[in-house]
């Protein structure tokens, strides 16, 4: 019998590391369609991502005015998951400010967008495929290729760095054109701050080895242990997970955005 092939992305990898049980509910049992809840921070991030995606398709800040960007943002806004109309309005205004600042910072930069929102994928081992969701690839005014990934959350963490290293690998593996070293940038929208990710010697190889090890662990896992903690508060499966550290009606163990 043919052995199954596992598809892993940086997001799935991170989810598994945070809590294997949650990964199991989401990607082995596919229970997300039953338990997924609208979340304010997803709505917020999604509106920003979609606005920037569509804006760069039109030419981006060097070629189009900020009004176009804001119109796309308001068209993309869905506002699901907010606890009150006031908190939704506040978040919506914050998003608008972020995009105004973003546009002002970038309107004089003449880079060319090669593509937005692509999902490159390649084999890593005979039983493991790696994929990712790229926000944008640019050719900069200096003639360098740059992978840009937007983040709308408040936190910077190591998983973002790993994600960008994987994206750099995926771009080189998937698109023959981009074999030169790539610039990798995490763009923190709330701070309007671009964080360059410069791989250290051997770092990409170490990350890929780690992905292979996690993939092997998932493929051979007999059970997926729970890892209760602060993230249980925002886990869609806390209503069915017997080990959840959070129950509906509890106070979140850490502040939840909005
Ligand atoms: S509720 Fe907590 S322990 Fe249970 S699956 Fe979700 S994150 Fe894991």
H and E string = EHHHHHHEEEEEHEEH
Mean pLDDT: 92
Structural class: alpha/beta
Helix content: 40-55%
Quick one: how many beta strands?
8
How would you sum up the global shape? Answer: flat
End-to-end separation: 49 Å
Strands side by side in the biggest sheet: 2-5-6-7-8
The CATH topology turns out to be Lambda Exonuclease, Chain A
Number of helices: 8
Q: Biggest sheet, open or closed, and with what strands and sense? A: 5 strands, mixed
What gyration radius follows from the Cα positions, in whole Å? 20 Å
How many individual domains?
Answer: 1
Taken as a percent bin, the fraction of beta residues is 15-25%
The level-1 CATH class: Alpha Beta
Q: Which molecules other than protein and nucleic acid are bound? A: iron/sulfur cluster
Low-confidence segments, ≥5 residues, pLDDT <50?
none
Notes on the protein architecture:
This protein has 258 residues and is of the alpha/beta class. 42% of the residues lie in helices and 17% in strands. The protein contains eight helices and eight strands; from the N terminus they run E-H-H-H-H-H-H-E-E-E-E-E-H-E-E-H. The mean pLDDT is 92. Bound molecules: iron/sulfur cluster (SF4). Iron/sulfur cluster (SF4) is lined by residues 19, 21-22, 25, 226-228, 231-232, 235, 237-238, 241, 243-244.
In brief:
With 258 residues, this protein is of the alpha/beta class. The protein contains eight helices and eight strands.
Lay out the secondary structure.
Blueprint: E1 6-8, H1 10-18, H2 20-28, H3 32-35, H4 40-58, H5 66-76, H6 85-106, E2 112-118, E3 121-125, E4 128-131, E5 134-139, E6 145-151, H7 158-174, E7 183-188, E8 193-197, H8 203-220
Iron/sulfur cluster binds at residues 19, 21-22, 25, 226-228, 231-232, 235, 237-238, 241, 243-244.
């Amino acid at each position: 019998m043919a052995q199954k092939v596992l598809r892993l992305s940086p997001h799935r990898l991170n989810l598994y590391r945070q809590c294997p049980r949650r990964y199991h509910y989401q990607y082995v049992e596919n229970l997300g369609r039953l338990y997924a809840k609208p979340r304010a921070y997803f709505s917020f991030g999604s509106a920003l991502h979609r606005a920037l995606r569509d804006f760069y398709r039109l030419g981006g800040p060097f070629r189009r005015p900020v009004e176009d960007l804001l119109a796309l943002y308001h068209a993309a806004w869905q506002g699901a998951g907010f606890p009150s109309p006031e908190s939704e309005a506040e978040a919506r205004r914050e998003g608008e400010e972020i995009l105004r600042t973003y546009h002002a910072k970038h309107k004089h930069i003449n880079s060319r967008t090669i593509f937005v929102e692509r999902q490159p994928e390649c084999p890593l081992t005979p039983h493991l495929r790696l994929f990712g969701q790229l926000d944008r690839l640019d050719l900069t005014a200096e003639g360098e290729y740059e992978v840009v990934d937007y983040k709308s959350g408040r936190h910077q963490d190591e998983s973002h760095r790993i994600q960008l290293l994987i994206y750099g690998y995926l771009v080189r593996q998937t698109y023959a054109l981009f074999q030169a070293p790539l610039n990798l940038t995490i763009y923190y929208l709330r701070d309007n701050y671009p964080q360059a990710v410069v791989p250290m010697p051997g770092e990409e190889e170490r990350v890929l080895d780690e992905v292979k090890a996690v993939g092997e662990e998932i493929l051979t896992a007999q059970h997926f242990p729970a890892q209760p903690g602060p993230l249980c508060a925002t886990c869609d499966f806390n209503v069915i997970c017997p080990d959840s550290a959070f129950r509906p009606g509890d106070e979140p163990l850490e502040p939840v955005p909005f």
